[in-house]
Design goal:
The protein is of the alpha/beta class. It has two domains: 10-200, Rossmann fold, CATH 3.40.50.720; 203-340, N-(1-d-carboxylethyl)-l-norvaline Dehydrogenase, domain 2, CATH 1.10.1040. The protein contains 18 helices and twelve strands. The strands form two sheets. The protein has an eight-stranded mixed beta sheet with strand order 5-2-1-6-7-8-11-12, sandwiched between helices. It is globular.
Length: 372
């Protein structure tokens, strides 16, 4: 089937979770021709039957019935429908999606990871190359997900908030302008994120999620998460651990020539929350009040954020001479709690194909691409 054109960009949204449904419905309501893909058809059968998704929003945001052009569990059909592929899945699924999409991609397509976590675009491109994909495809990643959203039912989604500015970078960065131009009619909120090392090393979830979950493990298991995750879970001692993790992340970025935002700077920028230290700043963030802790330790804050965020940041630190002992400790605790080896399962530098690159070589790669 050939892509349809009607003056709007054609989009395929890959993943029908909370975020994927919200994005697909919103794009459709903006007048785009939208395909929704999910690996298991059961999850999208109600959407397929109704032909779209009901979207609700707060504060005058988008709402209505987003009619979709195609709803499918066939990756070939999904990829063939659109120029722009929006991947809205846990980052632990990126490699699998790349492997399945590789035979179907064609020149000129754009793949955007929402978000990439850390080194998502690098991993995606490596898998495409390993699978023999020779199409001239541009892979990009967002620093964070543009929506705060949830699923209200099998064919219903709700948007709480749309972020006003989200950094995005292509791999290589000299293609970022083209990606931003393609997305701009629907998403003017995306801004130049410099390169994928910048977007990946400004990954705040890597700092806040795993450590806060593990340091509150007993409380999570004894209460099934019945406490305020940030407000009750962050105490002065917990905040000191988060501060050390954050300092390691910023130092890893500096070793790569990147000025990463600190957690304090990020809270100020995103939420206008400040304080004398991280503990105080977190408690001054009004949006954290009411957010409950995970009900279980089997949660993406560990099984996604550890292997796809902390592991690659720590691996970059080890490669370029930065002490990352606090990160190592958190990764090791997660391995023990989940009885698995996140170092083996995670985004290590050999899996990313960058283990032999010097700082100048990795910088050249993310900015300009591989040299022949």
């Amino acid at each position: 089937m050939t892509p349809h054109t009607n003056g709007h960009t054609d989009y395929t949204v890959i993943g029908a979770g909370n975020g994927g449904k919200a994005m697909a419905a919103h794009l459709a309501l903006m007048g785009c021709r939208v395909t929704l893909f999910n690996r298991t058809f059961d999850r999208i059968s109600a959407i397929h039957k109704r032909g779209g998704i009901d979207l609700e929003s707060y504060d005058g945001g988008p709402r209505g019935f987003g009619r979709l052009a195609c709803v499918t569990s066939d990756i070939g059909e999904a990829v063939n429908q659109s120029r722009v592929l929006m991947v809205v899945t846990p980052s632990s699924a990126h490699a699998e999606i790349a492997a399945h999409a590789a035979p179907h991609l064609r020149d000129g397509q754009i793949v955007v990871l929402h978000p990439g976590r850390t080194c998502g675009a690098i991993e995606f491109v490596k898998v495409l190359r390993d699978k023999g994909c020779r199409a001239d495809v541009t892979v990009a990643e967002a620093e964070t997900f543009i929506y705060a959203s949830r699923s209200d039912g099998p064919a219903q989604a709700r948007i709480f908030r749309i972020k006003e500015a989200v950094p995005l970078a292509a791999l290589p960065a000299n293609r970022t302008t083209d990606v931003l131009a393609a997305l701009a009619p629907a998403y003017p909120q995306f801004i130049d994120g410099v390169n994928v090392l910048n977007t990946g090393l400004n990954n705040m979830g890597a700092i806040f999620h795993p450590a806060l979950t593990l340091l509150n493990a007993g409380r999570i298991e004894s209460t099934n998460g019945d406490f305020q995750f940030y407000i009750d879970g962050v105490t002065p001692s917990v905040a000191r651990v988060l501060e050390v993790l954050d300092r390691e992340r910023v130092t890893v970025a500096a070793a790569l020539g990147i000025r990463a935002r600190t957690a304090m700077e990020w809270l100020q920028m995103a939420y206008n929350a400040a304080g004398a230290d991280l503990n105080e700043a977190i408690h001054n963030q009004s949006g954290y009040y009411g957010i409950k802790a995970p009900a279980t330790l089997n949660h993406r804050y560990l099984f996604e954020d550890v292997p796809m965020s902390l592991v690659p940041i720590a691996a970059l630190g080890q490669r370029y001479g930065v002490s990352v002992r606090a990160m190592d400790s958190i990764v090791q605790l997660a391995c023990i709690v989940h009885r698995t080896d996140y170092w083996r399962r995670g985004r290590t530098l050999d899996k990313l194909g960058i283990e032999q690159l010097s700082v100048s070589e990795i910088t050249q790669y993310v900015n300009e691409g591989l040299r022949d």
